[in-house]
Amino acid sequence: MEIRKLGRTGLEITNLSFGTMELRLLDTVHSGRILNEAPDRVVNYFDTSPEYPMSEYFIGQGIAHRRSEYILATKCGDNMTGIGPLYRFDRKTILDNLDESLRLMKTDYIDVWQLHGVVPEFLPGGEAGEAMEAMREAKAAGKVRHLGLTVRNGGPSEYGYPAGFGYNSLPRFAPWKDIEVVQLVYGGLTRLSENVISKANREYNTGIIARGIIKKYDDRYDARFEASKISELFESGESRNDFLLRFALTHPDIASVLIGTRNIEHLVENVQTATRGPLSADIYREAKRRLDFAGVVAGPAEF
């Protein structure tokens, strides 16, 4: 498994990371098995959230004893009261999230602590606002080591769905000195942020985690894929998901791609694919040319 630097955090993470949202659908025994399979397969970056509380609980139950073997990322701004909006970015909500995450996961620190599903408009005051002040406070207390955020992807009826929010928000978040990591939607069929990712990483050393790389975000997914004819570039035995995973891994400015599963066989397949490494330069260039021709294009790198 390839190890890459997560931007200016200096953390060394595997190019494939494990999203734990689907663990909430399992029980303690089955979640423990897949959670231990990941570090056994040398996957060392785990991403979770208070919004999927059983996942945080299962991490504490299943792999707290292996804490030195993985880098732990969770989120904040999740309204767990059941009353009002899904997210609240006030000091109390954020710090309550953190204390509960630490308790559930049986750890005394979080490696990467992220505001959950934000765009700049969600954070009044920007860098000087209440949310960032609370995050800096937690970092100063040693409860978290690095700060970041995950960008909203929204719903099908929204203009920015699924990758537009990331494309528009990353140029605004990357200059924030406290934001070291940004997670956003990117993939072979959602290429909009391809170039702003490069600019954020190269100019601000922002660590980029890509999610949704194989997800079918709309009904045009299959048609765009067929129109691109990139299946002609597959190696023998390679599936569409394999190729799209490797395509995302080939982006030179992405630290890791995040894939969630509750199935050990799927985890093993993804690890095997990631272990094969990036696409060759020729195949990568040709894949992008074909995707461009099919209208699956990258946006300009405008900051």
Describe it.
With 303 residues, the chain is an alpha/beta fold. The chain has one domain (3-219, 246-278): TIM Barrel (Alpha-Beta Barrel), CATH 3.20.20. The protein has 10 helices and 10 strands. It has helices at residues 28-40, 53-63, 91-104, 130-140, 164-173, 194-204, 221-228, 240-250, 264-275, 281-293; strands spanning 3-5, 12-14, 16-19, 45-47, 71-76, 110-118, 144-151, 181-185, 207-211, 256-260. Strands 3-4-5-6-7-8-9-10 form an 8-stranded parallel beta barrel, surrounded by 6 helices. The longest helix is centred in the N-terminal third of the chain and has 14 residues, at 91-104.
Question: Concise description?
Answer:
This protein is of the alpha/beta class. The chain is built from 10 helices and 10 strands. Helix 7 packs across helix 10 (281-293).
Topology:
Blueprint: E1 3-5, E2 12-14, E3 16-19, H1 28-40, E4 45-47, H2 53-63, E5 71-76, H3 91-104, E6 110-118, H4 130-140, E7 144-151, H5 164-173, E8 181-185, H6 194-204, E9 207-211, H7 221-228, H8 240-250, E10 256-260, H9 264-275, H10 281-293
Parallel strand pairs: 3-4, 3-10, 4-5, 5-6, 6-7, 7-8, 8-9, 9-10
Antiparallel strand pairs: 1-2
